[in-house]
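Milestone M4 deliverable, item 7.
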Amino acid sequence: MTRVWIITGCSSGLGKEICLSALARGDKVIATCRGDPNTRLIDLIAKGADVLSLDVTAPLEKLGEFTNKAISIHGHVDILCNNAGFLQHGAIEETNPEETLRQYQTSVFGPMNLTRTVLPHMRQRKAGTIAMIGSGISDLPVPGTAIYTSSKAALASLTITLAAEVAPFGITATCIEPGEFRTEVFAEPTTAAKRITEYDDVLAPSRERVSPDFKQPGDPHKAAERIVDLLTGHGLAKSRKVPSRILLGDDALLWKSFRVKELERDVEEWRDWSIGTNFDNE
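Output delivered:
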């Protein structure tokens, strides 16, 4: 079965690797990027991808026009992969409202709006898959990444409910949360315009990890293969129900395990404080 994909943010990194993996399996891919796709995505064109320009932060009406154009290429779309993103680095006090909004427009509002434009098509066909690329550190306290991680946490929360809403129409929705993979997201973060030197020590560890010199352990090619398996029901995902939220990467699994244990400990330690707030005798 040949599937048709729309993948955002395909000029480099994970998005590009997902495109290549899907194309290698014989699927049709509509790859997107900002700017001129005929220049920026020339290597994907050579592999057989269709390309379109897309700014995921565009107004809903413009995104609707994009979706109609994309669907017209092959007559339908099976998989939407919301991958486009960047990492805004800086302490909360250092970042400004404009930087925060730009992160949320790209990580949350853009994917949400693009999904809104694709859902009517998928509902009509009673089939489809929507994937959000989240982050394995979305609920971890990593100083310097709060703007980024909170946007990814919002995306994950949104996807959990989206999955429940669209399941009756035969549509699957999942948020894939990768750990540290060697892509431009980590090597080329956007740094806060304002720098407060008092935060230098507390931000030093995360600054080191988002620099071009840090060698992230994750192989983006392997990640892409797993993602395509998941979204097409192959490999380790064959005959398994896709969860609404799933981790990707050895490190992501380790971090989440620690976080779950921490949450369980806090729930039990503060149980007496949390309960006993209902009305009496009701």
